[in-house]
Structure formats: C-alpha cells, structure tokens
Design brief:
672 residues, seven-stranded antiparallel beta sheet, six-stranded antiparallel beta sheet, 44% helix, 22 strands, alpha+beta, Beta-Lactamase, Rossmann fold
Length: 672
C-alpha cells in the first residue's frame, strides 16, 4: 500500500533510486533534476521578495507552472482554509493542457471528509500514490477523486500561527506517481514561500488600509500628524502638517526648525510643553501662534504623548495638530461682542439713570389752565404744532411756564411715549455745554476717565428741550445747527458720526432778534429755531387765569401735604390779582405753597411776603449813587485820599482821578 500520512515534523527519508528504471522519468526525478528544482525554488523565493503586491498573483501562477510542469503533474493549487468553516477557497490554481481547472469554493467535508480530517484537523500530509490505496473509511474521498479523474495526489498543510492556513494540493491525472520525501520537502518549501508572500501582501495592505483610514480621519478632522524622535530631535510630519506650517516638502525638519515658525511670545511655552510631555509621559496639549512667511498669524492646537521604547525603537513623542484660527477668531469676536454688550449695558444703565434723574426733575407745574385770550391763542398753537415734529421756539419771561408748554407739546406728539430730555443751557458752564449735549469718549479731555452719553443720544426718537437757548456758546450753536439740518453729530474725542432723530423745542426769556444783532447768537440758527414761535404772555397780562391757577396749586399742595382747603377769601384773591407778578406763574406757585404751609383751617390764609407790600425803594440817579459811595469812603478814611488805605486806594482810582470826580460831584467842599 503506497499511502503515506506524514506529520509536518517527520524527518524526510533519503531519496531512493531503486524504482528509477521502472518508474516514469517524471515521477522520480534524477538527482540533477532535484538540484535544478532546488535552484528554481531559490530563484522563486528571491522573486517573491521583490514582486509588487499588484503582480504577486501572476507571479505565484508563473512559479507554479515553472515548478510543477517539469514534475509531470497535471494540476496544483493553493487552497485557503477558513478557521471556522470546512469550505476552502481556491486562491491560486495551475493546470496542464487538457486538464479541467478547479476554481471557486470547495466543501471538503462533503467531497473529502477523510482528507479534511487528516490534513486540516490533524495537520498531517496526505500522500496518495494511487486511489486504490485509500482506506475503507475514505470511500467518499475515493469516489470524489474518481469523478475528478485524479490518480495521485499530494496535500500539504501550511501553518500560520499554529493553525492550518493553506493547503498546497498537487494532483496527477494522466498516470499514477510516487512522491519522494525530498521532493515533498521542496514542494512544502515552495508552498510556504507562496503563503509567506501572500501574508506579506495582506499585512502590507492592512498597513496601507490603516494608514489610509488614519489619513482620512486626520483629513476629515483637518488635522496634521507628527512624530518627534526624542534622541535625535528629528521631526516627522504628514503632508497635511507640512501644508499647515508651510514647510517645504524636501526640508528635513528638526524641533529647532519647527520652533522657529512659532510666534516669539509662544516659543518658551511650547518648549516647556514638549519637555513636560517627555518628562511625565502624560498627554500634553497647548495652543500657540504660528507666523507664516507672508506675516499672517494663525493659531494651532497640538496634543501629544510620549511613546516608550518598544521592539528596539527609540522613544518618540507622537501627536496631532489642528488649525484653530477660525475658532480663535470667533472667540475673539465673541469677546468683542461681550465687551460691546457690556458697554451697551453700561450705556443703557447710564441712560436709565439719566432718565430717572430727568423724571425726578419734572416740573410739578400742573396742566396749564387758561381762560384769557392770550393763553387761548397759545393753546391753539400747541394743537397746531404738536403732531408735526417741527422745531418750536417758546418765548416769554421767566416763570411763565415755557417748560410746561414744551412738555405739553411733547406729550401730544407721536414721541409722547418717550421721556422728554431737558437741558438748561444757562445752568451749565460754557466748557461743559458741548459735552453735555453731544457726549464725550473716554480720554476726550484731561481727567475724562469715563465715557459720557450726550443728551442727543438719550433723546434719539424723542424730544430735546433746550431751555435758555440764548445762553448757549457760539461754538456749540454751530454743532446744534448741524444736528438741526443733517441729524448727525460726533461725540467729543470720536471721529464716528452718529445719526439721530430728535425733535428740538427751545425756550428763552431774551429777545433772540436783538441777540442776533448784537452778535451773541447765530443768525442761521435763529432762523432754524424760529420756524414756529410761541409767545407766552406774562401773568400780569392774564389776570383772569389767576383764580384757576390758584385752585390748581391748592389741590396739588393739598394732596401732597394732606390738607383740605375749601375756601379763599375774596380779599386775598383780589390781592393776588392785583400784584404785578414779576416772577409770573412760578412766583404765584411759591406764594400758594407758602400759604398752604401756614394755613391751619379749611380757608387759605395769605401770609408775608405776599400779604404785605414790599418796602418802598427810593429811585435815585447813578450820579447820586456814586456821590453817596465816595462820601461814605471819605468818611471812613477821615478825608484822607492819598497813601496806604486812603480813599483813592480803596476805590481803585488814582488820586488825581478821584480829585476830578469829587469836583464834578461837588464833594470838594466836604473834603475841605
């Protein structure tokens, strides 16, 4: 029986030449043929090392043809064995001319169950010189060989990591043949060369696939990979990293060359981060700036970790870098927005405080009551102009209620829901009028440590009441004229033009026409303000309104003081109507408030200074006033004119000038 089941580790039996004359020359090669076969296997091994992955399959088929064809066999192939299935895949097959090929997949448990047990499960060689040598339990295998026309076969298990990974199967169909041990050893080596080459390709493809996935992940994350050799200081980077840092493809990189691209202020922190990562072995991250050749500054975020020595490799720092310039710019923009929001909040709080102050200062004059023709005319004009949005100029003596009229016009206008902003031009120093109206930026003046919002800012969308407009400095009048004409201005210390929508209501107790003629008020501004003048009559010209005003004031102060006044005597009312009221409504209001405080019952009692007439003041000429003053000084100095503390020194005059004045005023006799 010429059937041999050999274990892989079995020592080959030396080749015997006993059957050489009787056997076919192709069945038992002569010694020189084995030598040539050995050379061929060595040559194939060298070629397999050099062959590319793309040409490996063709090279294996070529090697099978070159090695099997001289042996006189008819078919040979590599079968890939699955670890969990009896189905094998025919990965590479060679067949002689006129022999049917075998391809695809084969279920060994169905076709060759006994052979599957021997080769795959037991890991032994299956050496069959003829089909008749198969044991009785291999009947299924015998029938399969007969159907396939196989007369002799050799199946060699090829191991990887302790399991059968491939089968190198060789078959003879035209005639039976023996399989000498030395030939089997050469064929096993040939099969192992094939499998080793296939494994090398698989490992290479796996490595490439891993690299491609890593590159894809890095590209998807827009990341650059790098590696620093701790011993040599050399730096390996991917193409993406070169692109991010602007490194030339041919440039050999070192840590020093890399640090040269970093912003000078960030080099020390980056160097410290690299040192910390090497010292601690922990993952370290840092954000830093890179300055490109064109001067652009970009932000990078790098994270890395030390990889310890493995399999003889030197320690290295490996990591990834992301270009975070866009995120940094958004962070800086966000910070700017936060600062702007903070500024706007402070401005809003300041504006709110200003509005609260304005609300607290609202004049407590009641809605004007009128029955006189003068005030009826004023009421008609208010109704005419309130909803137009035009500039209004209110004229009248002090205390006639000009601000009350301005408030009424504002409340009746479309801007009435907003607070009317007020500025008393006479109450502000000339140097502060402009900053009060138009605002100032921080640092606009020496000592200007904060930003100030102007009244025009606060009045945007509302009404600005300029009381005592005639007191406004000429240089400020020019800026006011621009706002009236173009609706824009600049804050002090800022070049930025601010657009506003403000209605102007101005008031004055002076004759603006006369002020223009005297050069104290701009003519063009006067024309812009005098579009719709309203003349407020003095209280002495509207005596019929006094009773109405008196009762309005009584009700106002009564509610505030918790008093109930039901009567006022006719005598007191006549006294009120007979006064000239140089202070107009404001003076009347003060008198009523004084009376409300002093009254004890339900009847209003007038008290000084209203009930008593003011003391008579003698009307004297200016010359008489001067005469009396010089006489008083002469009396104080006992008539001494010259010298220290003399009359001339006290009066600030030269002695000769004082003598002349005394002669003119007929005081020389007194001196004598």
């Amino acid at each position: 029986m010429n059937l041999c089941l050999a274990e892989k580790e079995k020592t080959p039996v030396p080749f015997s030449h006993q059957a050489e004359s009787e056997a076919d020359p192709s069945a038992v090669p002569p010694e020189h043929q084995l030598v040539e076969f050995h050379k061929l296997v060595s040559n194939i091994s060298a070629r397999m090392i050099k062959v590319s992955n793309e040409n490996l399959d063709a090279e294996i088929l070529r090697a099978m043809r070159e090695s099997l064809e001289p042996l006189g066999v008819d078919r040979g192939g590599l079968l890939e064995v699955s670890a969990d299935s009896p189905v094998v895949k025919v990965s590479h097959i060679w067949f002689a001319k006129g022999v049917d090929p075998v391809s695809g997949e084969l279920n060994l448990t169905e076709l060759f169950p006994w052979g599957y047990q021997v080769v795959v499960q037991d890991g032994k060689d299956l050496i069959m010189a003829k089909v008749a040598d198969l044991p009785r339990e291999a009947e299924v295998d015998r029938q399969s060989y007969l159907r396939m026309g196989t007369r002799s076969t050799l199946s060699l298990p090829l191991f990887i990591s302790g399991r059968v990974h491939h089968i190198f199967s060789i078959q003879a169909q035209k005639k039976e043949r023996d399989w000498p041990e030395e030939l089997i050893a050469h064929l096993r080596l040939l099969g192992e060369i094939f499998v080793s080459a296939l494994q090398r390709r698989e490992a290479d493809l796996t490595l490439r696939s891993t690299k491609e996935r890593l590159d894809l992940a890095a590209a998807s994350a827009d990341a650059g990979l790098w590696e620093i050799d701790i011993t040599s200081g050399l730096l390996w980077i991917t193409d993406k990293t070169r692109e991010m840092f602007g490194f030339d493809a041919a440039l050999e990189l070192t840590v020093e060359r890399f640090l040269a691209e970093i912003h000078p202020e960030d080099r020390a922190p980056v160097t410290a981060a690299i040192g910390e990562a090497c010292r601690t072995g922990k993952e370290t991250g840092i954000e830093y700036r890179v300055v490109s050749a064109d001067g652009r500054v970009r932000w990078m975020n790098s994270r890395g970790r030390l990889q310890a020595e493995k399999t003889g490799r030197r320690p290295r720092l490996m990591g990834v870098t992301l270009d975070v310039t866009g995120r940094k710019q958004m962070e800086m923009q966000l910070q700017d927005h936060i600062l702007e929001i903070k500024r706007l909040r402070e401005e809003l709080e300041e504006e709110n405080a200003c509005l609260r102050n304005e609300a607290a200062k609202v004049d407590t004059l009641p809605n004007f009551s009128c029955s006189s023709s003068g005030m009826q005319s004023v009421a008609v004009k208010i109704e005419q102009v309130s909803r137009t949005g035009s500039t209004v100029l209110i004229l009248g003596e002090t205390g006639t209620g000009k601000e009350l009229i301005a408030q009424t016009i504002h409340r009746l206008s479309e801007r009435g829901r907003q607070m009317m902003i007020k500025v008393n031009c006479a109450a502000l120093p000339a140097a502060l009028v402009e900053s009060e109206l138009f605002g100032r930026e921080k640092g606009a003046f020496t000592g200007a440590l904060s930003r100030q919002v102007g009244r025009f800012d606060l009045a945007n969308g509302s009404t600005l009441f300029l009381d005592e407009i005639a007191e406004m400095p000429l240089e400020t009048q020019a800026k006011l004229l621009r706002v009236l004409q173009e609706g824009e201005f600049e804050r002090l210390g800022s070049p930025r033009t601010i657009k506003v929508d403000v209605r102007i209501i101005a008031a004055t107790n002076r004759d603006l026409g006369e002020e223009v003629e005297q050069g104290r008020f701009r003519r063009d501004l006067y024309y812009r303000l005098n579009i719709f003048p309203i003349q407020m009559p003095p209280l002495r010209d509207r005596l019929d309104d006094i009773p109405l005003l008196v009762w309005e004031f009584i009700n106002e102060f009564g509610e505030r003081m918790g008093k109930k006044i039901r009567r006022i005597s006719n005598r007191d009312m006549e006294i009120l109507k007979s006064r000239p009221w140089p202070g107009n409504i404001r003076e009347l209001r003060n008198v009523i408030e004084h009376a409300m405080i002093a009254s004890k019952g339900e009847t209003l009692e007038l008290h000084p200074p209203c009930a008593e007439k003011p003391p008579f003041m003698e009307a004297v000429t200016l010359e008489e006033v001067e005469r009396r003053h010089i006489r008083m000084i002469l009396d104080a100095t006992n008539g001494r004119i010259k010298g220290p503390n003399g009359a001339a020194e006290r009066l600030g005059l030269k002695p000769s000038t004082l003598y002349s004045r005394m002669l003119k005023l007929d005081l020389h006799k007194v001196h004598s």
